[in-house]
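User: Hey, my collaborator sent me this sequence without any context and asked if I could get a structure. I don't really work with proteins. Can you help?
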Amino acid sequence: MTDPTRVLIIEDHELLAHSLGMALRAEGYQVHVSALVSLEGIIAEACGLRPHAVLLDLDLGGAVGDGVGLIEPLTRAGARVVVVTGSTEGHRHGMCLEQGAVAVLDKRVSYDRLLAVVVAVAEGRDPMDSARRHSLLAELRSWRSAHVRRMEPFERLTPREKQVLGGLLEGRSAEVIARDWVVSETTVRTQIRGVLTKLGVSSQLSAVAAARSAGWSLEAGEA
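Assistant: No problem. I've predicted the 3D structure and written it out in structure-token form, which is a compact way to encode the shape of the chain:
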């Protein structure tokens, strides 16, 4: 007797998860809906279940958050991953494919289309047009190139200047930063001037706005 095809649904919208699960069970699939405890918990579920196919929501919220980090370990465990997302950011879709997803679907697709794709993936068929796949991967490469250019001014900051900018992002004044670091306010203001010069802005507010616009953070800058 052949084992039934196993499908793991990782989706924080319970109605969609359970209705899709019912439809797949009616097709003869063995379906498990993840409890969404944590990233580690989901990976442990997958390792125990060893699903043939995974339906993964990209934005899981709660303790899990971004689902991109799940794709590679799920794929390594032998699953074929279909990402379903409401995000319209093509570079994120490209990241999913780069990590090993076999398809990325818009959540606005019809229920019948979603079901058909999951069935195709569970049966080992490729549900995604190759031209669309290449387009999303090209969009990811373009986004990364633009991101590197946006980050270039911040890479010129010294470690201390990055810390100062991080403090400004947190809403701390030069006086507060100086007190916390036990240094003179003059020293901090000198470092702030260095930040403004390297970012090509004329005020602390502009520096903060530039950092937020570029997606820069102290943690990312020190990575």
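In plain terms: The two ends are 52 Å apart (CA to CA). You can pass these tokens on to your collaborator as they are.
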